[in-house]
Write a structure and sequence with these properties.
Length: 352
């Protein structure tokens, strides 16, 4: 019944969804079952969101933080296209009887944000900095939060900050979701990922517009079922446009040097670029460059190199077992220049 209610709220095609009630479970270990619901492109985002909720809940329970004490290691990437731009803290929180999250003070000029993801993978606008924030949702009893904390903190500094974060929730019932058939889930996820190059070719700079929206604010005007489903497959938990603008590339051959020289995007927070293998996962310890770490050119522009050797400016290695690489530029608290359409990806060129 829970999945049916979510589908009605989303306006999805109910006929395409299973009508038999699957067993409700509270752990990721139990999530996949041959007797579970069949995933379709219409319900994939809901199933993937349930998977993410259960993954965190199984580790730390409900209303508790799972703090990542180090920047994302290559052997622990729970979703595609994670990055090392920030430290992560995540939690599944029961908001049915009210809940708040309190974030501590951090030094001026440092980045800390809190994102709320509802059970149907709709994304609320971020909260920034210190404070006590009320949590709410338009559907279900739970939300998933991601707190991102500046990567320029040392591990000791970020641990002290994370340990001061707190959750106050009046209800403690765990999140549950119907079981899902794993084979169909994997097939739909793979198919949705293959649609991203088509969207990139069609929509260009606006390829990710409409993927991460909230039905209760103005971002809902950008929502499309196509972008909603593909967004969950290529970057679950992505932020609203006002908080992050993403540039996601297609695949490049990993054995060829590429470079991009571009103007400073002048974001309110920072920009970054992260390199992934064909499947969307980081594969090397040095996987990204950001405006916090990159060396500027004499004229104020940036040059970022991909697979061009240690002597190349701001180089990121690209060789990996998949034989291909792709990249994601992220603009944190994007500038008006970025909002107006300036993009970095068009500047990425093969170097002979």
């Amino acid at each position: 019944m829970k999945k049916l209610a979510l589908s009605i709220a989303l306006g999805l095609n109910i006929v395409a969804l299973p009508t038999l009630a699957a067993t409700e479970v509270a752990t990721l270990t139990e999530f996949f079952s041959d007797k579970g619901e069949v995933t379709t492109s219409e319900n994939y985002a809901i199933h993937e969101t349930a998977r993410q909720y259960l993954k965190t809940q199984e580790k730390v329970g409900v209303n508790n933080f799972e703090h990542k004490r180090v920047l994302t290691p290559t052997d622990e990437q729970p979703v595609v296209r994670m990055n090392r731009d920030t430290y992560y803290s995540m939690a599944v929180i029961n908001v049915s009887e009210g809940a708040t999250v309190t974030l501590p003070e951090i030094p001026e000029g440092k980045y800390m944000s809190m994102e709320v993801i509802t059970e149907d993978h709709r994304i609320q606008a971020m909260q920034y900095g210190a404070g006590t924030f009320d949590l709410s949702t338009h559907i279900g009893d739970h939300v998933y939060i991601i707190v991102r904390t500046d990567a320029t903190f040392t591990e000791k500094e970020v641990r002290e900050i994370q340990d001061k974060m707190s959750i106050d929730a009046n209800a403690t019932t765990e999140f549950t979701a119907p079981q899902v058939q794993e084979v169909a889930f994997d097939e739909i996820e793979k198919d949705l990922k293959t649609q991203m190059p088509v969207i990139l070719k069609r929509d260009g700079a606006q390829a990710t517009f409409g993927m991460f929206t909230d039905p209760e604010d103005e971002s809902k005007e950008l929502f499309t079922e196509e972008k909603y489903a593909v967004g969950a497959a290529i970057g679950w938990g992505g932020a609203q446009l006002q908080d992050n603008i993403y540039e996601v590339s297609g695949n490049f051959p990993a054995d060829k040097c590429h470079q991009a020289t571009f103007e400073d995007p002048e974001n309110q927070a920072f920009w970054s670029v992260t390199v992934y293998n064909k499947q969307g996962f980081m594969f090397a310890d040095v996987a990204n460059v950001s405006s916090n770490t990159a060396t500027k050119n004499a004229d104020g522009t940036y040059t970022v190199s991909f697979g061009c050797g240690d002597d190349a400016p701001n180089n990121i290695e690209t060789k990996n077992d998949s034989g291909m690489f792709n990249m994601a530029f992220r603009h944190y608290m994007p500038s008006q220049k970025i909002r107006d359409g300036f993009r970095v990806l068009p500047y990425v060129k093969a170097v002979k």
